[in-house]
Amino acid sequence: MLTAVNPKIPMRDKAVTREFYLNKLGFEDIGAADYPEYLILKKDDIEIHFFLFKDLNPLENYGQIYIRTDNIIDWYESALERNIRMPEAGHLHAKPWGQMEFSLLDPDHNLLTFGQSVEEQGGGF
User: Fold this and answer.
1) DSSP helix/strand/coil, 122
2) I need a surface site. Which of 1, 33, 71, 106 has the fewest CB within 10 A?
3) Which of 35, 36, 18, 14 lies closest to 27 in space, CA to CA?
C-alpha cells in the first residue's frame, strides 16, 4: 500500500529556501538540521524535501509540485498580500478540467501550483 508522496526539489541556498517556505508560506522545518545539503519542510499534510544544487540555473529549473487544497482563495490572497512571485499565467482561474488553480515560484523557480476542485466550492468561483 502506498501512503504518501514527498517530492524532492532542488535548492541553491538552504537558508534562502528555508526562509521563503517558513515566512512566506507558513511551513515548518521538521528535520535535516544536521544535514547542510538537505531540508525537510511540512505544512498540514504536505511534506517537501529539498536537496542542495548550488549550480542550478533557476531559469532552467523544471521543478514542479501540484498541491491540492480546500481553501484556494485564502492561499491565493495570502500569496498576493506577501508579494510572492507568480508566473505571468499563474493567477487564480478556472481550468477546463474542473479545478481552480494558481501558481507561484519559489526562490529557485520551482513551480508550486495550488488547486481545488470547482465542485468543492459548489461551482461558485
Assistant:
1) coil
2) 1
3) 18
